[in-house]
Design goal:
Alpha-Beta Plaits; four-stranded antiparallel β-sheet
Length: about 110
C-alpha cells in the first residue's frame, strides 16, 4: 500500500492558499489542505532579510502523487520560489485508506477494505 505524504508550504494570504488547495482537491491530487492564517515570517531573500505575514498550507496526499502535486503547486503558486517541504509520516489504516480514496484517479491504487 502507498504511504501518506504531507506537503508544507506558505502562501501570501489565506484566500490564495484556499483557492490553490481547493483546485488541487478538485483535481484529486490532494485529499485536504489545512490553512493556518497569520503566520509571521522572517526570511532571507536575495541577499536581504525580510519580514512578512503569510498563511501556512499543509496538504495531505499520498507519496505516489508527489511529482504531480509539486508540479501543480509550482504552476499555481504566486511566489517566484515557493518553499515546498515534503514530510513522510506514518498513518493509521483508516487515514491512509481515506487519502487513497480521495485521491483515486488514473493509475491510483484501490483503497484496501
Amino acid at each position: 500500500m502507498e504511504n501518506p505524504l504531507l506537503v508544507y508550504t506558505t502562501f501570501p494570504d489565506v484566500d490564495t492558499a484556499l483557492g490553490i488547495g481547493e483546485a488541487l482537491v478538485r483535481e484529486k491530487l490532494i485529499a485536504c489542505i489545512n490553512v493556518l492564517p497569520g503566520m509571521q515570517s522572517v526570511y532571507a531573500w536575495k541577499g536581504t532579510v525580510e519580514r512578512g505575514q503569510e498563511a501556512v498550507g499543509i496538504l495531505k496526499t499520498r507519496k505516489g502523487l508527489q511529482e504531480e502535486v509539486l508540479q501543480a503547486l509550482k504552476k499555481h503558486h504566486p511566489y517566484e520560489t515557493p518553499v515546498i517541504l515534503l514530510i513522510e509520516p506514518d498513518a493509521d489504516a483508516a487515514t491512509l485508506s481515506w487519502l487513497i480514496g480521495e485521491t483515486a484517479g488514473a493509475g491510483a491504487p484501490e483503497p484496501s477494505a
